[in-house]
Amino acid sequence: MKLVLLSILAVALLLFGCTAPSAPSQPAANGTIPPEQQGQTGALVGNDRDAHGCIGSAGYSWCEAKQKCIRAWEEDCLAQHYTCSLQLVPSSINADDSTDLQYAVSSAGGVNFTYDCGNEKREISTGGLSTGSYLCHYGTPGTYNVSIYANGKPCASQILTVKTPEQSHLTANCYIDNSTIVRTVGPNYYYSATVRFTGFVVNDTLLVECGRTKLTSRLGSGAFGGMSTSEEVYCDYGTRVPEVDSIKISVAGVPCGSISTR
Q1: What is the pLDDT of residues 157-195, one digit of tens each?
Q2: b/e string for 184-219 if b means 16 or more Cβ within 10 A?
Q3: Bond into 255 cis (ω within 30)
């Protein structure tokens, strides 16, 4: 009789004592439930997977373009690669001046490209390669991080410095382009050249000292907006021999050089 009872106890231990409870299933790194755990039942953590196996409670959703589960705040659901670049010409301007924003963007579609341009926000047409430029006006001195955005996220940027007139004159420079100098000596006396300059502001004064005659003009804007970078200057003496040995040229009190009249 004792032998029978011991046999029954041994069988019971084998059937019930060696069975461990199953562990709750956990989502894999890609947001899906592993196949070996998908058949388990009970109160499972993250057991709200969709038809693709993405765990919604963990923030995953199915991305058809990439054929996987993603978290929208970690990566875009974009199958295509996109590129963008920009260049500011120039990257340092004076207040109330403009810079030329030159851009190039490329995508297979589905990407909304935008960029900041002064107080404006502009869009770039998408699909394939798109290039262009736009003059951006800045009235307030400061440092600006000018960027192109792809679906609201920065993908290219460059720093723009907008200076006050006082800051500009600290680095202002001008010179006479010697390759443009023209001298006509007798019977008429005529001299001309191109003066090139940087760092000045609109309405700074260009002074040409021809001798008894002094010519002044205001620096103005270029043909496409923004600050001009050169001016043609001349002194016409007619048949009169110049009374000075050289013609002195300056911008806002900054010497640019001189042209010999001899």
Answers
A1: 999 988 876 665 566 788 999 899 999 988 899 999 999
A2: eeeeebebbbbbebebbbbebebbbbbbeeeeeeeb
A3: no
Domains in the chain, please, with CATH? 27-79 (no CATH), 83-163 (2.60.40.10), 168-260 (2.60.40)
* Separation of alpha carbons 146 and 108, rounded Å: 24
Q: Where are the beta strands (DSSP E) in 47-203?
A: 61-63, 68-70, 83-89, 92-94, 97-107, 113-117, 120-124, 128-138, 142-150, 153-163, 173-184, 189-198
Distances in whole angstroms, Cα of residue 41 to Cα of each of 29, 37, 174: 21, 9, 82
Global model pTM greater than 0.70? no
What does the pLDDT look like over 205-214, one tens digit per residue? 899 999 888 9
Residue 3 has pLDDT above 70, yes or no: no
